[in-house]
Design brief:
Order of helices and strands: HEEEEHEEEEEHEEHEHEHHHEHE
Shape: globular
Radius of gyration: 21 Å
Number of helices: 9
Helix content: 25-40%
Strand content: 15-25%
Largest sheet: 9 strands, mixed
Number of strands: 15
Bound molecules: zinc ion
Structural class: alpha/beta
């Protein structure tokens, strides 16, 4: 009997070690970002909230300051680190944007802990690669929530601060439920608090939180906006729809649902918040295996049949929903938000050039906008 027990023990040790090594590497791997020539400074989120110093939740903040003053935009991606069209769009801005007027502040990897987490129960791949002219650029695929390694244990119920609304226990690790946060709260509240401090100290006018959403969820292909952002959101949505020919609509931010960026940023600062959603078939429940191919091309036979039954909230056919389309939608909507803001507040212009719109990204591919970190000036390469 002891022989069988020993064999089982050895097998358990081998399996956990093999899996553990992969998870350890995923948690510690860094993604190189080549800061474009117009990036004027790079700081840490902990510079705005000391409670993040030395934790895995700390992350890079890129400033692109224009030659002329103007409005200020904060762009956040990887709030949910399993919605990668957001970070891919944010890095197009970091690596290429030329800001003529105003300031762009970009946090490409907002929930750093979640970007080092995974969802083994759903069989998530740990990485995905985007083809470029110089090879492929590798990214970590994270999870919706921060890792237990960084914030543990979960409470039975998450009591939102300061509203005291009762939220699901898991939302204590979800950086789109922990706004506006506290400097000494749970780690994810410290992340959102630091972003609130950026918004308040830097006098940010526009805060954009970039996401992806299931095709079976009605809040997709849209801009979520509270009352104060509604006019600019509506003008942006109508313009991209008419001019750039992709679906978009506006969803009002519900005032009674607390903790979300599009609600709390507006209520706790002078900034206008916007949350962008583009479809991500990978996140839908009734799909085949969660493969890298599904993540990148959005093709799935089950979604196709559901689409024919009218169950999806986006147009869907055999071509799936390629990543280039989703990233291009984000860049176009962000650019148009800045144009509409400038139109409404000409005394605070935000003029950004050299960023591709939807048609450009679809034509050239998202990878064509990333620079080779091996060939770049080492002083401009940041690891995130
Ligand atoms: Zn999301």
């Amino acid at each position: 009997m002891w022989i069988i027990k020993s064999i089982i023990l050895i097998l358990v040790i081998l399996i956990t070690t093999a899996a553990g090594i992969q998870l350890y590497q995923h948690r510690h791997d860094m993604i190189p970002i080549v800061a474009g020539e117009r990036v004027t400074k790079v700081v840490k989120l902990s510079d705005y909230s000391k409670g993040l110093k030395g934790t895995t939740a700390d992350t890079l903040v890129f400033f692109l300051e224009g030659k002329e003053p103007g409005g200020k935009v904060l762009l956040m991606a990887n709030t949910h680190a399993n919605e990668p069209s957001a970070i891919l769009a944010a890095l197009i801005f970091v690596e290429n944007a030329v800001v003529d007027k105003g300031t762009l502040i970009i946090i490409p990897n907002f929930n750093n802990s979640a970007s080092r987490n995974t969802r083994p129960g759903d069989g998530y791949p740990l990485y995905f690669e985007i083809p470029t002219e110089w090879g492929s650029k590798k990214f970590r695929l994270g999870n919706r929530d921060a890792s237990w390694v960084d914030q543990w244990p979960d409470p039975d119920v998450y009591v939102h601060y300061p509203d005291k609304q009762l939220l699901s226990f898991i939302d204590t690790r979800n950086t789109n439920r922990t706004w506006p946060g506290r400097p000494d709260g749970p780690l994810m509240e410290r992340v959102t608090y630091a972003a609130m401090q950026i918004i308040r100290e830097e006098k940010v006018d526009v805060a954009v939180d970039v996401h992806g959403a299931e095709t079976m969820f009605p809040v997709t292909n849209c801009i979520v906006a509270p009352e104060k952002s509604m006019r600019i959101a509506t003008m942006t949505s109508l313009t991209v729809k008419a001019r750039e020919k992709f679906d978009n609509h506006v969803e009002p931010s519900p005032s009674g649902f607390r903790g979300l960026s599009h609600r709390e940023i507006g209520d706790f600062s002078d900034a206008m918040p916007f949350l962008l959603e583009a479809p991500i078939p990978f996140l839908d429940q009734p799909t085949g295996p969660k493969t890298v191919e599904l993540l990148l091309n959005g093709k799935d036979p089950f979604l196709l049949s559901l689409s024919k039954k009218g169950k999806l909230f986006v147009p869907y056919d055999e071509t799936g929903w390629p990543m280039d389309k989703r990233v291009g939608q984000h860049t176009s909507v962000i650019l148009e938000l800045m144009r509409q803001f400038t139109k409404k507040f000409p005394e605070k212009p935000i003029v950004v050039k050299n960023v591709p719109n939807y048609a450009d990204v679809v034509k050239n591919g998202v990878g064509s906008y990333y620079h080779d970190p091996e060939k770049a000036d080492k002083a401009r390469v940041y690891l995130n």
